[in-house]
């Protein structure tokens, strides 16, 4: 799937609150094998993300699950990067790709799990 097509697909699912396990597996398959190793964390994140209308908070729940809980066997960082870029691209928001990289690295290294802190960090990516 072309990068732009992937972003459009992701965003379409995202805005329709259809971020399902199947959709996230398909995203991960762009980078790895789509194998889930932490099923309950992914279910929890999707449930909470779909329960709020705050799109940044939705991303925060998914960031915590994908980056900290390593829901996939491989490709977690790339999967989340693709998701956040897709949302920002489709919302036509300017962002700094280096800040996305820094965001992902910081969440992982510092093991940041607080949703409100992750939410603020995601907002800092937007120019």
Describe the structure.
With 127 residues, this protein is mostly helical. The chain has a single domain (3-125), classed as Fic/DOC protein, Fido domain (Four Helix Bundle (Hemerythrin (Met), subunit A)). Helices cover 69% and strands 0% of the residues. Helix 1 packs across helix 5 (76-90). It is globular and about 35 Å long.
- CA-atom Rg in angstroms: 13 Å
CATH architecture: Up-down Bundle
Strand composition percent: under 5%
What is the fold named in CATH at topology level?
Four Helix Bundle (Hemerythrin (Met), subunit A)
Number of structural units classed as domains: 1
Strand-helix topology:
Elements: H1 3-15, H2 21-29, H3 39-50, H4 55-68, H5 76-90, H6 97-109, H7 115-125
Helix pairs in contact: 1-5, 3-4, 4-5, 4-7, 5-6, 6-7
Features:
69% helix, mainly alpha, 7 helices, 127 residues, single chain, Four Helix Bundle (Hemerythrin (Met), subunit A)
Concise summary:
With 127 residues, this protein is mainly α.
């Amino acid at each position: 799937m072309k990068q732009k097509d992937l972003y459009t697909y992701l965003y379409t699912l995202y805005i329709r609150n259809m971020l399902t396990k199947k959709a996230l597996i398909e995203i991960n398959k762009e980078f790895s094998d789509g194998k889930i190793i932490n099923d309950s964390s992914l279910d929890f994140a999707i449930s909470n993300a779909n329960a709020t209308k705050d799109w940044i908070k939705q991303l925060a729940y998914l960031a915590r699950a994908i980056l900290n809980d390593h829901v996939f066997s491989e490709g977690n960082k790339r999967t989340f990067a693709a998701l956040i870029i897709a949302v920002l691209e489709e919302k036509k928001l300017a962002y700094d790709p280096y800040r996305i990289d820094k965001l992902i690295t910081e969440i992982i290294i510092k093991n940041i799990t607080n949703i409100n802190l992750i939410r603020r960090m995601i907002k800092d990516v937007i120019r």
